[in-house]
Amino acid sequence: MRFTPVFAAVLLVAGCTSAQPGLGPEINVPAQLSTIQEAVNAAQEGATIVVSPGVYEESVQVRTKGLTIKGARRGSVIIDGESERAAGVVVAAEDVSVQNLTVRNHTSHGVLISEQRGFRVSYVTSSNNARFGVQALHAQNGVIEESYASGSGDSGFAVDRCKPCDIVVRGNVAERNAVGYQGTNASGRMFVLGNRFSGNRVGLTSAAERQEDVTFVGNLVSDNDEALSPAQADGAFGLGMRILTSTKNLVSRNLITGNPGIGLALSPGQDSAPTDDRLESNVIVGNGQNVRYDTDVPRKKPKAPRGIPSNQVAAPPLQPEMPSDPLPDKAPNADKYALPDEDLFDDRAAVRA
Q: Which of the two residues, 85 and 23, has the higher pLDDT score?
C-alpha cells in the first residue's frame, strides 16, 4: 500500500508540546496517524513511532528530542523520495534513533543527522540517494551501525565536521557508491570499526587539515572498482583507503585487497609525516600498489569508467532485521574487532570479489 504525505504546519514553542491526547508513548503509523511526519509532529519527547509496512512518499523532519522511529520490517517500510524530495529523514533534535527501515530515491540524503548529539542509526537500508546514504554533519556522540548503503553519488556513510566527534561507525556494508565511507574534518574519538567497504569506486577516505584521534580497525576494504556506480567529480576509482595521517590515528587489523589502484594511500597531516607506529597488523595485499605515500613515484591509475546515475544503481539485496534484543552499548570497544576475512558480511552484499 502507498501513503500520500500530509504536511502539517507545526508551531514549535519552547516549553510547549504538540502532542495529541490519547496517543501515548507509542504511536503506530498508519493505524493511528497516516504519515510518519504526522506522528513525529504529534509525539512527545521520548516517544516511539512504529511504522507498518508500506511505501511512504514523504520527507520526515524530526525536531522533537528523544524520538525513536522504528520500522516493523526493514525491507518493506520504505520512505521513498521518488527522485523529487531532498531527504528521507532529517534529524534536527538530540537523542533521536532511526531504526529498521529503508530510505531510497532522494535527491540528496537518505538520512541526515544535522548538528545534533546522541543520535543512533541502526539497521537502516539507504539506496539510490543522489548524494549521501547516511551523513552525520556537525554531529556528536552517536552511532551508525548494522546499516547498508548503495547508489550514493557522494558517499554511502559520511561523518563530517566534528571535533571531538565521539562517533562510532560499525558493522555496516557500503557498495556501489562513489565512496563507501567518507570522513571530512572529523577528529577526536572517531571510530570506524568492522565495516565492509567493498565494490565501490573508492572504499574509504578520511581527511582534514589536522586530523587526530581517528581509529580504523577491523574493516574489509576490497575490490573497489565497481563500474555500475555513481562517479564523483574528481573521478577517483580503484582506491581502497586514503587517509590524511596525524600522530594520533590508528589503522589496525584491516584487510585491504583487490583494489586495482592503491590499497592504502597515506598523506602527511599538518606538521607531521606518516610513520609506521600508526599502522599495526593490517593485511594489505593484491592491490595495484599496496601502500603509497605522497613522496612515492606516482603509478598509472586504472582507467575510470564513466559511472551511472544514482537512480539506476541496482536495488540492494535483502538485509537482516533488527533483533528484538536490546542494541549494544554505544561504546566503541575497538579491541574486540579482529582482522576480517574476505567474506565479511557476504550475506548482506551483492558485489562479491
A: 85
Q: What are phi and psi of 334, to 5 degrees?
A: -60, -30
Hey, is 137 helix, strand or coil?
A: strand
Amino acid at site 166: D
The DSSP bridge pattern shows strands 60-62 and 87-91 to be parallel
Q: Do residues 82 and 105 touch, judged by C-beta distance below 8 A? A: yes
Model confidence at 232, in pLDDT bands (50, 70, 90)? confident
Domain residue spans of the chain: 175-323+330-353
Give the Cα separation of 250 and 246 in Å (integer): 9
Q: How far apart are CA 49 and CA 100, in angstroms?
A: 12
The SS3 assignment for 334 reads: helix
For the chain, counts of helices (H) and of strands (E): 1, 30
Q: 125 versus 297: which is more confidently predicted?
A: 125
DSSP state of 37: H
| Kind plus residue range of the DSSP H or E element containing 284 | strand 283-285
User: What is the H or E stretch that residue 2 is in?
Assistant: strand 2-3
Say what the pTM is: 0.91
